[in-house]
Design goal:
alpha/beta; 39% helix
């Protein structure tokens, strides 16, 4: 019998490079597949709370194509960056010298504060839908998990990385843990870095104060729920 697929929806190639090999070794009785959407669907202007579940379904359908069937999927796991989305507006600081948002552990700096506020509002409302979604295409189990502020921050304690730095760090992560899976599991279960153990509580936690800028993740829950941790 062919292996069931765990499909991970991610924004880009660095998540794939970082985690495909490691998760394939951890879930060696399953097939790990990555679906790269090349964007953050929670911040796209055309994506709203009333159509984000449909877009999610389209992403999964496009992955399946003519190669796979819905029954081939065990579950769909969606990894997102928190990007400081839940911080108070008082923690957004104006800096006219900047062209991009710049993140620290307690604030976001930007040329136009309103652009950060608008981005955050869009992402929050879309995430609220995804957090409460348990199935995609009506019957495939689905959960969304976060890496805060992003993959590089959680795994490497690095902020505001360039594309080149992201690619380099991705390979470093894969090389570090591919032959030492136990250390990877210890890392994601580190009490200083993990969210609360309950899924709903993990999202409640990240929504408080400046926690969405903290170095934190709830992917340990994904590993636990799949009976690995």
């Amino acid at each position: 019998m062919s292996k069931k697929i765990i499909l991970l929806i991610v924004e880009g190639i660095t998540e794939d490079i970082s985690l495909r090999g490691i998760l394939s070794e951890i879930f060696n009785d399953k097939k790990i597949e990555f679906c790269l959407v090349r964007t953050d669907i929670t911040t796209r202007e055309d994506i709203k709370p009333n159509n984000i579940k449909k877009e999610l379904g389209n992403i999964v359908k496009n992955f399946l194509g003519r190669t796979f069937r819905e029954t081939d999927l065990q579950e769909v796991i969606h990894l997102v960056d928190t990007d400081g989305v839940y911080i108070p507006e008082t923690n957004i600081e104006k800096d006219i010298t900047l062209n991009n948002f710049v993140y620290s552990v307690d604030k976001i700096k930007a040329k136009d504060i309103n652009k950060v506020i608008e981005r955050n509002e869009t992402k929050k409302t879309n995430l609220d839908v995804l957090i409460s979604t348990n199935e995609v295409l009506k019957k495939i189990p689905y959960k969304v998990y976060y890496l805060s502020q992003n993959l590089e921050h959680f795994f490497h304690d690095k902020l505001n990385c360039t594309r080149e730095e992201k690619n380099k760090l991705a390979q470093i992560l894969e090389d570090k843990y591919i032959e030492d899976l136990n250390s990877f599991l210890i890392f994601v279960r580190d009490s200083k870095l993990k969210s609360p153990d309950d899924y709903s509580e993990s999202w409640d936690y990240i929504k408080k104060s400046t926690n969405s800028l903290n170095r934190c993740s709830n992917i340990h829950i994904f590993l636990k729920d799949t009976r690995i941790v």
